[in-house]
Amino acid sequence: MEKLQRDMCSKTKNEIRYILVIALMPLILAAASVSSIPMHSSYAQNDTSSFGQVTSVYVNGKNYPIKYSITTGKLLGVVQDKDKTTLIVVVSTPSDKGTLNIEIPRNILDAKGQSNADAKYTVHIDGKDATFRETTNNKVARTLAIDFNKDARLIEIIGTQASPQ
Q1: Domain membership flag for residue 163
Q2: pLDDT by residue (tens digit) across 37-59?
Q3: For residues 46 and 159, is the Cβ–Cβ distance under 8 A?
Q4: By residue range, what is the domain housing residue 150?
Q5: Which helix (H) or strand (E) holds 129?
Q6: What is the mean pLDDT of residues 135-164?
Q7: Each residue of 104-116: b (16+ CB within 10 Å) or e?
Q8: Number of structural domains, the chain?
Q9: Residue 164 falls within a domain, yes or no?
Q10: Residue 20 burial (CB < 10 Å; 0-12/13-18/19+)?
């Protein structure tokens, strides 16, 4: 145990967070299998986007829907780290590179700058800077298209505000 503690002290904060998420992966995957829900027809009536699937993020005792589509692989779950104003998206991408399109409700995570103006999110894939673009933006949500490579596991979407209403 002491050796593990010494090793952990020598890691950077990002490495430590990555190690903790990997260590907690079985719990995240178990939560994802419970929280992933198919798109219901009543929900689809309100959906005018190209999103084909909905998952949810569990925050403060309540599930919040997150719309998404993924070109390859599978979204396994979404977890909010409110203290770090981050959504952690767990994906399985065994075969090829792809793109995750994800609609982020502003009441879950947002990025604001001076004068409450929209700021750019920061996105990391497996602890490294990622290529992404914001494709839509309205009063309720912002949509990101995030490119990932084969074998990507963790996508961190970092904002400046995380607070469900």
Answers
A1: no
A2: 333 322 333 333 467 799 988 88
A3: no
A4: 2-158
A5: strand 128-129
A6: 93
A7: bbbebbbbeeeee
A8: 1
A9: no
A10: exposed
